[in-house]
Amino acid sequence: MGARRRVDAASAGALISIACDSIYMAPGASIGAATVVNGTDGAAAPDKYQSYMRSMMRSTAEATGRNPQIAEAMVDEKLVVPGLSDDQSVITFSVSEAIQNGFCEGEFSSQKAILEAQNLKSAQVIAYEEKTVDTIISFFLNPAVSGILILLIIGGIYFEVRTPGIGFPFAAAFIAAMLYFVPYYLNGLADNWEVAVFIIGLILIGLEVFVIPGFGIAGVSGIILTFIGLLLVMLNNNIFDFSFPSSL
Asked: What is the pLDDT of residues 87-130, one digit of tens each?
């Protein structure tokens, strides 16, 4: 890991770094502190999540020839590594400590310095740049944007049902649905069956409004399936299995 400024490899960054064959750190950088925290107040997540992260850190360190006990202790403060940590805090290494314990191959102030040290002056350096389409997809995957699209979908369907006929509410709901489902589908977050559940729900609502008089089983089922389809797309699941991956 080379940089012109200080870079810290904490949390998932520590896992990514450990997965590399070689780790290079900039002066003043650190690596470790990979405890899983929640996204609200930054508090530590339940032990189920910590257990999974510990196993990931351990197996990754083993695969790259690094000390798995140290890698685990970067996640859980209760794990004690003699001479390195107590039961009060997780392991976080400075550059010198990382080098001493096999979690860094060298300290360099720039990417160019790393290449020169490895006799790779003529190496081609490829910098990752997010494509415009990826930026657009990321925008629509934002929970706030997804929430607005869901409101537009539901609102459009509601007003279309209240005033039957193909009009502006239907068009707004259709466009919002496309903007909602397509980014999730392209990113592999939405399965075909989840989209099918939503479409079946719309079909049932349409049958209730335009074919079947009154409002009964078809309409209620359609509303339920529509909501389920919208919700499942946002939730990571495997055919209604919402459990977190088990520890390795």
From this structure: 778 899 999 999 999 999 999 998 889 999 888 888 888 887 87
Task: Give the DSSP letter of residue 129.
Answer: -
CB 28 within 8 A of CB 39: no
Q: 4 by DSSP, 3-state: which?
A: coil
Give the percent of the chain with pLDDT over 90.
25
Residues 6+ apart with CB under 8 A from 130: 138
Domain parsing of the chain, residue ranges: 8-117, 132-234
- Does the pTM of the predicted model rise above 0.70? no
Architecture of domain 8-117: Alpha-Beta Complex (3.90)
pLDDT over 80 at 8, yes or no: no
Q: Would you list the DSSP string of 52-71?
A: HHHHHHHHHHHHTTS-HHHH
Give all strands (DSSP E) within the chain, no chain letters: 8-10, 24-25, 30-32, 92-94, 106-107
